[in-house]
Structures are given as structure tokens and as C-alpha cells.
Amino acid sequence: MGDKFKIWIYSSIAAVFLAISVVLNVIFISKNLLLKDSLNQKENIFLTTITYDRDNNLLYEKTFVNVEAGSFYEITKTDNSFQYSDPGPFGVMLENVKNYEKASNEYFAITSSTHEKCAGKGYDQEKEPNACEVGASSLMVTKPETFVIKLMAF
């Protein structure tokens, strides 16, 4: 075979690899940009809180819209209706909602049937199967979530 034929073969192989490389880069770069945009969009994330008192009467309901991903505490601390404890071994805990007068043996329990740290994980499956067993600062909200807050007694 002549040198011109070898050059033509090598040039053709290089051109094919270059074309494949360009196509793959265009596909993966566009997918990467779409994924990055979807992660940065705040309008996809909202947090709904529904709070009940000891008699199961609605005490407070609020939906936080267009929020950035963060903890339950970070999102709800912007509303003065939620009061929190100082950080402890379980993180920041929800102390009170709307300055409700609670007894010394009562506490506000955060529950959720959709959040991964709550759904089906309550210590008392009959009484409350979806109790979040972590503090408000440990409940990360990265997608639309609904939390029910109940006044419970121990």
C-alpha cells in the first residue's frame, strides 16, 4: 500500500473519532446544563406545614414557596410563628408554634408521610407511624414536602 492510502486511512479514522467526540460532547454538555438548571430552580421546591393543637384543631398552616433546598429549620425560621430551641444533641428542635400554651409534658412533633427520615420510621407505629426522629435542622428539604406538626404528650 502506498503512503497516500495510509494517510487517507489514518485521516478517515481520526475524522470519525473527532465527529463522535463532538456529538458526545454536545449531548453530555446539554444534559449537564439542563440538570444544573433544574437543580438551581427554586420554584420546584415548596414546604407546607400544617399544625394541630392537642384537640386536633388546626392551629396554623403555612406554605413556603420558591424556597432553596435547605433544612426544615432554615426554611421555617423566617416565620416568627415557629420558635426553636438552642442546638442540642439532636440539632435544633421545634419548641413552639404561635406561642401556644402547652403543658410541661407536651411537645410539638414533626411528622411526614413523604420525607425519607420520617415516613414509616416513628418509634410508636400505632400512635404515630411517620414521626420524624431527628431535629428540625436535620430534616433536609430538597423537593416539595408536607409536614404535619402535632402537639403530643409524653
- Which strands sit side by side, in order, in the main sheet? 2-1-8-6
CATH topology of the largest domain: the name is Ferric Hydroxamate Uptake Protein, Chain A, domain 1
Q: What composes the largest sheet? A: 4 strands, mixed
Report how far the terminal alpha carbons are from each other.
Answer: 90 Å
**Low-pLDDT stretches:** none
State which percent range the strand residues make up: 25-35%
> In the CATH classification, which architecture of the largest domain applies?
Beta Complex
Radius of gyration: 26 Å
- The structure class reads alpha+beta
Rounded mean pLDDT is 83
Tally the beta strands.
8
What coarse outline follows from CA principal-axis ratios? rod-shaped
Number of domains: 2
Written as H for each helix and E for each strand, in order along the chain, the element string is: HEEEHEEEEE
What is the CATH top level name of the largest domain? Answer: Mainly Beta
**Helix-residue proportion:** 25-40%
- Note the total helix count: 2
Brief overview:
The protein has 154 residues and is α+β, with helices and mostly antiparallel strands.
What is the topological layout?
Elements: H1 3-40, E1 47-52, E2 58-64, E3 70-71, H2 72-76, E4 82-84, E5 94-97, E6 106-111, E7 140-141, E8 145-153
Parallel strand pairs: 1-8
Antiparallel strand pairs: 1-2, 3-7, 4-5, 6-8
Give structural notes.
Keywords: Membrane, Transmembrane, Transmembrane helix. The chain crosses the membrane at residues 7-29. The chain contains 2 helices and 8 strands. A 4-stranded mixed β-sheet has the order 2-1-8-6. A two-stranded antiparallel sheet has the order 3-7. The mean pLDDT is 83. It is rod-shaped. The protein has 2 domains: 1-40; 43-153, Ferric Hydroxamate Uptake Protein, Chain A, domain 1 (Beta Complex). A hairpin with a 5-residue loop joins strand 1 and strand 2. It is an alpha+beta fold and 154 residues long. The protein has helices at 3-40, 72-76, and strands at residues 47-52, 58-64, 70-71, 82-84, 94-97, 106-111, 140-141, 145-153.
